[in-house]
Write a structure and sequence with these properties.
Elements: E1 2-3, H1 9-21, H2 31-47, H3 49-80, E2 91-92, E3 99-105, H4 110-125, E4 129-135, H5 145-156, H6 161-170, H7 177-186, H8 191-198, H9 201-216, E5 221-222, E6 224-227, E7 230-233, H10 238-243
Parallel strand pairs: 3-4
Antiparallel strand pairs: 1-5, 2-4, 3-6, 6-7
Helix pairs in contact: 5-6, 5-8, 5-9
Length: about 250
C-alpha cells in the first residue's frame, strides 16, 4: 500500500503550549516577555517530559477516535445512498447494481495496478456489484499522478475511461505526456478536446471532490476500498471482497 507522507510535528507545538499554560499570553509587553515565556515553556518541557508525551498521546487518541467516527458516518451514508456518490465517477458495471465497490486509486501506485485484474474479475463474476473509481493521486511521491488522473478524466468525457485506465496501469513505468497522447490516439479520441478537457477547471474540480471524500474517510494511501459500509486497503484478493458482499 502506497502511503501519503504526513508530518504532525508543527501540529504538536501549539498543543504543548496549551497543555503547559492553558493559553499563551499575548506578547504586547515586548521581546523580554516573549523570551521569558519561551524559557518557561522549555523549562516545563524539560522537567515534565512524561506529562507532555502523555498529553500528546491522549490528543492523538482523541483525533483518531474522531477520524474513525467520521469514517463510519460517511461509509454508512454511502451504503444507504450510493447514488449520491456516483455522480461524475466512472462505473464499471451497471449503475443500477445493488452493491457498489468504491476504489480510491493512484495511476502511479504499483499496488493499484496489481489489484486491477482481481477487481474487474470480481465485478464480472458478481453482476449485482459495480466498481466505482475514485481518484486519490499521491502527488508528494508520484509526480505524474495528478496529470494521469486529469488525462483519465478527459478520456471519460469521451466514454473511454476504462480503456484509458487499463493502458495507464499496463504501462505504469511510462506514465507521462507521451503515453497520454499515445493512449488517446489509440482510443481514437478527439485530441484537441482531450487536451482541453484534461487541462480544464472541471477536471481539477472533479478530482478534488474525490480527494476530499478520501480525506473524510481518513485515507493515507492507495489502494483503499469502501464496500457495503466497510473500509479496507492494500493488496486485496477476491476472498476479502467476497467477505464484504451483502447477502
Amino acid at each position: 500500500m502506497v502511503k501519503r507522507v504526513v508530518s504532525n510535528l508543527y501540529a504538536a507545538v501549539p498543543i504543548v503550549a496549551y497543555v503547559c499554560f492553558g493559553m499563551a499570553p499575548i506578547a504586547k509587553a515586548g521581546d523580554s516577555l516573549k523570551l521569558d515565556f519561551d524559557q518557561k515553556v522549555l523549562e516545563v518541557i524539560k522537567n515534565n517530559p512524561e506529562a507532555i508525551l502523555d498529553s500528546l498521546s491522549r490528543y492523538r487518541e482523541t483525533q483518531e477516535k474522531d477520524q474513525e467516527a467520521r469514517r463510519k458516518e460517511l461509509a454508512n451514508a454511502v451504503r444507504l445512498n450510493p447514488g449520491l456518490y456516483l455522480k461524475g465517477s466512472p462505473v464499471f458495471g451497471s449503475k443500477k447494481a445493488s452493491q457498489f465497490l468504491f476504489v480510491f486509486a493512484d495511476f502511479q501506485c504499483p499496488f493499484c495496478a496489481q489489484v486491477r485484474t482481481a477487481l474487474e474479475r470480481f465485478v464480472v463474476e458478481h453482476p449485482d456489484v459495480s466498481l466505482v473509481y475514485k481518484n486519490y493521486p499521491l502527488t508528494q511521491i508520484h509526480p505524474q499522478a495528478m496529470a494521469a488522473a486529469q488525462a483519465a478524466w478527459a478520456a471519460q468525457q469521451q466514454g473511454k475511461f476504462w480503456q484509458f485506465h487499463d493502458i495507464l496501469f499496463a504501462n505504469q513505468q511510462a506514465i507521462g505526456e507521451e503515453l497520454f497522447l499515445k493512449a488517446a490516439t489509440e482510443l481514437s479520441l478527439d485530441i484537441p478536446r482531450f487536451n482541453a478537457d484534461r487541462r480544464s477547471a472541471s477536471a481539477s474540480s472533479s478530482i478534488q471532490k474525490d480527494i476530499e471524500m478520501a480525506d473524510q474517510l481518513g485515507i493515507s494511501g492507495t489502494p483503499f476500498f469502501l464496500f457495503n459500509g466497510n473500509t479496507f486497503s492494500g493488496l486485496v484478493d477476491e476472498s476479502i471482497l467476497q467477505k464484504n458482499l451483502s447477502p
